[in-house]
Amino acid sequence: MEKEFTERELDRIIEMAWEDRTTFDAITFQFGISEQETIEIMRREMKPSSFRMWRKRVQGRATKHAKLRPTDVDRFKSSRQKQITGNKISKR
Which of 15, 24, 44, 50 is the most buried (most CB within 10 A)? Predict the structure, then answer.
């Protein structure tokens, strides 16, 4: 893998990979990395047991692969997901 990511970008990639409704296509769209590169990042950045748990969970999951999703779902995130902001007041 040739790309260098900041710590913040790596955290976001990992967060998106853990989200059930965020497809690998969304990660590719935002960061320009393939599904295989995402898997390599997860393998490198996580504990082995956490990686195995994540890999078992996402393998074959329809919501992680755009081609397996129902055609009426065209968003990157769940409609129930809250907007993430850096405002500490909103986190109270």
Answer: 24
C-alpha distances (whole Å) from 68 to each of 33, 34, 36, 47, 60 are: 20, 17, 17, 28, 9
**What pTM does this model have?**
0.67
Q: pLDDT (tens digit, 9 = 90+) per residue, 10-53?
A: 999 999 998 888 888 889 989 999 999 999 999 999 999 999 99
The closest of 67, 18, 21 to 38, measured between CA atoms, is: 18
Judge contact between 51 and 42, C-beta under 8 A: yes
Residue entry with tokens 């900041």: 6
Spell out the residues 6+ positions from residue 77 whose beta carbon is closer than 8 angstroms to its own: 19, 21, 22
SS (H, E, C) 34-85: CHHHHHHHHHHHCCHHHHHHHHHHHCCCHHHCHHHCCCCCCCCCCCCCCCCC
